[in-house]
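Quick log. Single chain, no ligands specified.
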Amino acid sequence: MVSQTANNNHFVAEGVETTKVLLASSVEVVSVLLKETLFYEDPANFLSHIAEHRPGDKANFDVIIASSRQLKEVCGYEISRGCLSCGVIPSYASDEGFLFELFGKRQAERQAERQAERQALVEEGRVESGPTTRPRPRPRPRPRPRPLRVIALDKITDCSNLGSIIRCASAFSFDAIVLSRDCCDAFYRRTVRVSMGHVFRVPVVRVERLKDTLKGMKERFGVSNLATVVDDESVFLDELKGGDLEGGYCVVFGNEGFGIRDEVARVCDKKVKIRMSEEVDSLSIAIAAGIFCNGLVEREK
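-> predicted structure:
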């Protein structure tokens, strides 16, 4: 299923929570259609939410208030929790150049964090800055600069699965999601709804040739590409070490039916699988994605 919004640069978002995430993001909003009680009253109180996240000139979109009956007449179906919004698909959604620019910024931020960490250690006397060794006080715990985190999807065809994966990526602070040319649409109505609006928080970029993008990530940024494949050559997720992920990583998931294409798997550095009961040969891709995201983040430490 190729992009279903290819000839239309707008998307529709359903529900209170989804629309609130949209309003809190940098994505352009065209209009919000909702019941009167959602606009003025708690807990939704869109009036306050808009004032907080889209103050002044940023609130350059229409807010249309209607009754439940009018909402159904306009849309032709019952709207989830009485709220519907429309926005413009971000230009980066099909811009591979944006993807590499983003990775470059993340890499620069990480290098700056490492330099600041080392400088702090020098000032605390925990490392030598010159010929004299200074006293070394008890170390204070510091958060380590985290590696680049990316998900790549090879011909995912179910919008609900894609929405769930996007939500997992946001939950574990992944930097971006890369879609093959023939993946389903990240801004299709069902995908947006299942993602609970997190498609507006995590950049999702469609590329023309996924294998070339993976190779470029490896060559330019030192990213390790991890293919999620169940076979005898695969290592278990719990066998990965922090050093395997130090330079950044991209975990690759394949089609729900036939998995990752051979040409994509060949450019990956490792095959990785989840340790499971012998009575279970596979998991749904959405569940597997959640396990991989959590497991990889835990193994950065």
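The radius of gyration is 22 Å.
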